[in-house]
Specification:
The protein has 175 residues and is mainly α. It is built from nine helices and two strands. It has helices at 8-11, 14-38, 40-44, 56-73, 96-102, 106-112, 114-140, 145-156, 159-163; strands at residues 80-81, 90-91. Strands 1-2 form a two-stranded antiparallel sheet. Helix 4 (56-73) packs across helix 7 (114-140). The termini are far apart.
């Protein structure tokens, strides 16, 4: 009869677990700080900064944030709107991922406006993507925490994601 080995997390003492939680917190706070640095101009002037090469996308995402508010305040249909492509309207089911992001942001949008919600979504998207990769690497793929922190940082702040960090809150895998 074979005996099963005890998982490393259970075999480790309280000191080791505390050190591991400290490393987790450092990695996540580092990702948040890096995301704040990347999206700094958007956060400093929410709703005012527009990328030159892609000026229309932030406007559309902010419109979707306002649409999410109207769903709750005016009873607007969540999946169809006559406000775009009038008089025929637009089927918003093609952007259900955006509704998944914008509906939870309704309180923030109502209190601070769509510019703040948009900048917050972008920042949390970058940090959240890095954090999700860190969690996957450190918890499920058996990578050491330091290597997982580097891998999570690379995946979350890869050039393709940072390139879109100025205008696409739905570009990251964690979004």
């Amino acid at each position: 009869m074979q005996t099963q080995a005890m998982p490393a997390a259970l075999a480790a003492g309280p000191e080791s677990r505390r050190y591991g939680r400290w490393l987790d917190a450092c990695a996540l706070l580092s990702y948040l700080a890096l995301a704040l640095w990347v999206d700094g101009p958007l956060l400093a002037q929410p709703g005012q900064v527009r990328p030159e090469a892609n000026a229309a996308d932030p406007d559309f995402f902010e419109w979707m944030l306002r649409h999410a508010v109207r769903i709750f305040t005016e009873g607007e249909h969540p999946f169809r709107t006559p406000a775009l492509n009038a008089p025929f309207g637009v089927n918003l089911l093609a952007n259900t991922g955006l509704l998944g992001l914008t509906v939870p942001m309704v309180p923030v949008t109502m209190l601070f406006g769509p510019g703040v919600s948009f900048a917050l979504l972008l920042t949390l998207g970058l940090a959240g993507t890095a954090g999700a990769w860190y969690w996957l690497l450190s918890r499920h793929l058996g990578t050491g925490r330091l290597a997982a922190a580097v891998g999570g940082g690379f995946a979350g702040f890869a050039p393709g994601l940072v390139n879109h960090a100025n205008g696409h809150p739905n570009r990251s895998p964690s979004s």
